[in-house]
Amino acid sequence: MIHVIPLLRPVPLFCAEHLARIASAHRWVLAVQLGTVFITLPALVIVLVGVL
In a structure prediction context, what are the per-residue pLDDT tens digits for the chain, which is 52 residues long? Predict the structure, then answer.
């Protein structure tokens, strides 16, 4: 969806490279990202769908 707008095409690549640089310097950032993406966000979706 973001690749349809030419101005926004480099954004995902820039974000991935920036996060990779930070994670290579600070290992705990990688653990926080993985915990957020694979544990916290899915749990939040499950809770919100269960409430609604």
Answer: 677 888 989 999 999 999 999 999 999 999 999 999 999 999 999 999 988 7
Is residue 9 within 8 A of residue 3, CB to CB? The reply is yes
DSSP summary character for residue 52: -
Residue 26 Cα to chain centre, angstroms: 16
C-alpha separations of 26 from 16, 20, 51 in Å: 15, 10, 37
- What are the Cα distances from residue 6, in Å, to 3, 16, 49? 6, 18, 34
Q: Give me the pLDDT at residue 4, please.
A: 87
